[in-house]
């Protein structure tokens, strides 16, 4: 009887300890090819400072996006899988369950419908800073870039609030993400040889100084 009582006590203690453990915290997955702060600062100095061009002629349709990447998976579904944890996809590659942490605002989500895939440097911004002269194939590559830090799973209404604004007009709600955001932005602009405005450069410099 004594051994049974001791065993039950041990079981209860173990159960209590397990229940007391904190749930694993979701953290942001790292986008690919983000430069260090020092490299980003160097890249920033190499960008051409120029007033934004006209938005005349711009249309999202000129940047074919969410193309098929492999099998039946399109770009959005690939990023959802990459940026989420425990993501389950159906036979059509749509995410049916999973967990996503939005690095812009720190929110967590369990439904893919609550998550947008943000173009870090928005398509409209790219158009006004050089992409208007690109071919459709070049714009398609830009809109579906999985190699550089251009695509990120974030809270849908935060992405909508950002719209096509540059860092001079919009920054992530989490100031702790300023450094990473600026590093990503500069990398994308550098890779695609897009111009920046003077206000944009000032904002990026300030954000990089938080690193």
From TrEMBL:
<protein>
    <submittedName>
        <fullName>Secreted protein</fullName>
    </submittedName>
</protein>
<keyword id="KW-0732">Signal</keyword>
<dbReference type="Pfam" id="PF07510">
    <property type="entry name" value="GmrSD_C"/>
</dbReference>
<feature type="domain" description="GmrSD restriction endonucleases C-terminal">
    <location>
        <begin position="110"/>
        <end position="205"/>
    </location>
</feature>
<dbReference type="InterPro" id="IPR011089">
    <property type="entry name" value="GmrSD_C"/>
</dbReference>
<feature type="signal peptide">
    <location>
        <begin position="1"/>
        <end position="20"/>
    </location>
</feature>
């Amino acid at each position: 009887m004594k051994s049974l009582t001791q065993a039950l006590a041990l079981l209860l203690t173990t159960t209590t300890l397990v229940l007391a453990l904190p749930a694993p915290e979701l953290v942001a997955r790292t986008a690919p090819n983000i430069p260090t702060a020092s490299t980003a600062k160097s890249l920033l100095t190499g960008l051409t400072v120029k007033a934004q061009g006209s938005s005349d002629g711009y249309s999202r349709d000129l940047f074919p996006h969410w193309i098929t990447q492999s099998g039946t998976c399109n770009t959005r579904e690939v990023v959802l899988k990459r940026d989420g944890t425990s993501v389950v996809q159906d036979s059509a590659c749509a995410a049916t369950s999973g967990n996503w942490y939005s690095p812009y605002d720190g929110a967590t989500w369990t439904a893919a419908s609550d998550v947008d895939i943000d173009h870090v440097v928005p398509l409209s911004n790219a158009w006004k800073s050089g992409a208007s002269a690109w071919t459709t194939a070049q714009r398609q590559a830009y809109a579906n870039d999985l190699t550089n830090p251009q695509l990120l799973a974030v809270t849908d209404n935060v992405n909508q609030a950002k719209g096509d604004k540059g860092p001079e007009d919009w920054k992530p709600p989490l100031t702790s993400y300023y450094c990473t955001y600026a590093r990503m932005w500069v990398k994308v602009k550098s890779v695609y040889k897009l111009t920046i405005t003077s206000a944009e450069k000032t904002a990026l410099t300030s954000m990089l100084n938080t690193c």
